[in-house]
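Work Package 3 (structural annotation) set out to generate three-dimensional models for the target panel prioritized at the project kickoff. During this period the team completed the workflow that converts sequence records into discrete structure tokens, so that structures can be stored uniformly alongside our sequence database. As a representative example, we reproduce one entry of 285 residues exactly as it appears in the project archive.
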Amino acid sequence: QRLRSNLEHDKAVWSASFSPDGKTIASAGANKAIKLWDLNGNFLKTLIGHSDSVLGVSFSRDGKTIASASRDKTIKLWSLDGKLLKTLIGHQEPVNWISFSPHGQIIASASDDMSVKLWNLDGTLLNTLEGHSDWVLDVSFSPDGKMIASASRDGKVKLWNLEGKELKTLELGERTNQDYSVSFSPNGKMIASASRDSTVKLWDLEGRLLIKLKGHQGAVRWVRFSPDGKMIASGGDDETVILWDLEHLTLNDLLAQGCTQAGDYLKHNPNLSGSDRTLCDYGLF
């Protein structure tokens, strides 16, 4: 059911975000501005300061600060009354997304310059995380704030600590699986990634692929967990949003996924016996 449709921009909208209390919506896009609205669709304020499209907008956890990421290569911090608090300069290419840490004192930014940068709220650059070989499109903090996940067009999701050490790389070894979005589950035990190959993938923190969720008919551009961790929402080029019910993913779903990936290996591995080669051939899944 469509509740509101009058949150209008005069050009394409690239990002929207709810305030933590759910009372304010920030939207941003190609008109270089951030607009604030109430839940009834009433326009509140326009934040003007970027010189190119605004690609991402996010509220701090206490709802007092708004961060915006732009093609003009900067991040800007704003108060709710529209005052520009700080401009963060350091990326060499457009900034695609920004994320506040759970305690609200650190901002992570993802950029086309293939890096993730960590900043203090006063604009001090704390660290630069380098390791991707293509644009970094999304960045997310773990719920405890001790890890960062980044998603890139290089087909890899990387996990980092706050000191900039790369902890793990999540990948399937297929360059076409460009990862556009990444999100931690609320309990911090799983990661969801959205990919060009039309799937949403769930991973554990050791980098093991748990399952692929198939249903989209085009590239999946974003993915997020619900606050209770029971659902995932994903959206993409097929102009649909899909809600996935994680509570009803059964063991058989996971086993079927494992057989999908391992079936050919089992059949053609000369070191396996005949019975092992046909482990996934009995129609159990």
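The CA atoms of residues 56 and 231 lie 23 Å apart.
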